[in-house]
Predict the 3D structure of the following.
Amino acid sequence: MILGNVSSFWNKPKLIKLQRPASLLELFFDIVVVALIGGIGHKLISEFQHNEYTWHSISFVVLQTLSVLLIWRTITMYSIKFEVHDLRHRLVIISCMLPMSLMATAGYVHNSHNDAYTIYLNTISYAMLMVVVAYILLSAARFNKEDKFFYWHLMIKGLARVVAFVLIIIKIIVPIISEGPNSLGDPKWKEFFVAMWASEFIIQMIADMYSFTKKYMCHFPTISRHLLKERYSILYIAFLGEMLIQVISSFAGEKSHSANSFIFLLGSIFQIFLMFWLYFDLLNYNHLKKSYKSMWIYTFVMLLHFFSMLFISAGLSLIIQKHARPAILLLAIGNAIHWTTSKLVLYSFKSFNRDTRYLRPKWFHSVLIGLFIIGIVTSSVLAYTYTSPHILIWTVIGLQITTIVLLVVTLKISIKKYKDMTLEEFDKIVPTIKQDW
């Protein structure tokens, strides 16, 4: 950074024509997002531990997690496309991380859903985050007026955050005017809070979905499938690290241990490692299609993918802490969403790799989906009926290992079948990648 040249350290947000890699600051931003989701997960675990969960509290956890992931996606794609490595870029990212850190703190407070001051901390921090995101998007719109399409694209997303901020303020003011400043923890306001948060999330999601129209993709040709894979992969791996820390801390926090708790600890760690293995294979042996429809599907499916990991993490922690029934429920839901979204992500990829001459057979996806449906449904019912989490955990691990074995077998068969082909010959038999933007 050369301070003598103003443009080198304070640049107006302009569309970057050449794609740049993520900065270390943006990677730190990813870690803060994962810490925030970890706080939400801790809140979920605490409520099940003390039998304080209600449909209001679960709805709140779901909506807050999805809202945070949506904001992460918006800021990530914005900063990479409109910001360079300068002072403004640092201020933009740090101004998002500060309220997120406060929201994460609120998640680690015991009985946070009934404590008025913790609710103030979480809600006001979220309002601050909306202000920052709205400012970022609207200022970018202001400096891109010459491009009408991008001007309205950024304006719509920014105004959606302004509306969300207004709804957050209403959510705080109405209970205070009605019953005083300590009324936010009153259970009778829970439905109102959930309804307002759902409204904020839906407004933001609709505004962001505008980014995935065909016209937008054609107008924005520099988004790369490699960039998407890189950014989502970084968050996914950071999330797996958070899951591992959550499981280990749950085991360490127990006053006494038994053979069962050691078995659950090993099973939980094993499942997390296998989740990484499968995702690593997915990236190595697949090509993301470049059609706008698959990009739209990929983005929102990956958000659900991350959301499912919250439930899996909470379920594994609760099993170690000997809360069997809620753990089975969370694991069943989390694994069902995770495996379903995994299959959707698999379908959004072309299953071949030119360098290794790998071409996945057509029956592969069907076999995986059949195994998934039979395994998850059967093991979940049996585990809940007999209050035996062992059944569910080891079934999921068995499904993961089976998937890995299938990957290895198809890889070996494919390499043996096509190893003597030239690249030109191999290209003639692989699926055509749609190039519509």
In short: The first helix runs from residue 6 to 9.
